């Protein structure tokens, strides 16, 4: 009998988890054996259009605040029934909570969840996740770091957690890189959020005395702070805020180095995207990054919150062509071995019981 699976996520804006949901949906959706649809709690975002272009049905519930929760729950319950879904696989805490609530009102449907973050705050998210997790058969996490956070902060039993790494289609990241002329092109790709610690990277650029130019791709709540820090540090001529981009390749082809200075990450999808594109990476030495980057071999790791060491790592990459080339080549090979979609999708299919 064909499987009918609904992937539920908080929103479909440009970002790491929506990208994962898009790729999982497209790769699972193999009619007539497996029918997959995607729904989001918020209004439809750019990733919704990408899914529709791939012939994956999408529904947006249009919630703009928590006040919409009762209405969204009613519509979600009806949507599950009308779609004849036998499985709901939710991503991120708000979607996990809504799916858990809906599970009380439908029968004959299996519920799975995914946690994609290690961000400690707000703490109440982890308390909500603890309650939601009780309604899930199993919970997928992208790294051992997220598994640890889920056990510690939401008291989720280890046997309920399944580590399935995020992945990348290496062929889609075979790009011709064309960095702009001038100072060495350093890049950041991601949401502008305090946990990303962009001020540390700005300070590092300042310490490099004009030898590097920073390209920031992304939007978020921290944009005004980033803009203020650029002015405070006198970096207007060395920092460009490009805003959000539809595809990471659009940014990566302009870069000579990708930097991720975060204090916490659930996985660090942008790292494997950069590595697949042959762009060297520098990241902070956090558990999720250690799962991806082998220090000195496929990238460099530096302590969190140290602009001086961040600047030193950037300077090292800038000045050592041999190191830069060697790390980029080894990183490309490593991504193809460990983070290819073929292997990851086998894990997702087993997780959802599709081949059983």
Structure write-up:
This protein is α/β, with parallel strands linked by helices and 356 residues long. It folds into two domains: 3-167 and 340-351, Rossmann fold (3-Layer(aba) Sandwich); 170-338, Glycogen Phosphorylase B (Rossmann fold), CATH 3.40.50. Helix content is 42%, strand content 17%. It is built from 14 helices and 13 strands. The chain has a seven-stranded parallel sheet, with helices on both faces. The longest helix has 18 residues, at 321-338. The chain is globular.
What is the CA-CA span between the terminal residues? 12 Å
- How many domains comprise the coordinates? 2
CATH class descriptor of the largest domain? Alpha Beta
Instruction: Name the CATH superfamily classification of the largest domain.
Output: Glycogen Phosphorylase B
Strand content: 15-25%
CATH topology of the largest domain: Rossmann fold
List keywords for this structure.
356 residues; alpha/beta; Rossmann fold; 7-stranded parallel β-sheet; 6-stranded parallel β-sheet; 14 helices; 42% helix
Secondary-structure blueprint of this entry?
Elements: E1 3-9, H1 16-28, E2 34-40, H2 46-53, E3 58-60, H3 69-82, E4 87-91, H4 93-102, E5 110-114, H5 123-133, E6 139-141, H6 144-154, E7 161-163, E8 184-189, H7 198-207, E9 212-217, H8 223-232, E10 239-243, H9 248-252, E11 257-260, H10 269-276, E12 281-284, H11 287-292, E13 300-302, H12 307-319, H13 321-338, H14 341-351
Parallel strand pairs: 1-2, 1-4, 2-3, 4-5, 5-6, 6-7, 8-9, 8-11, 9-10, 11-12, 12-13
Helix pairs in contact: 1-2, 3-4, 4-5, 7-12
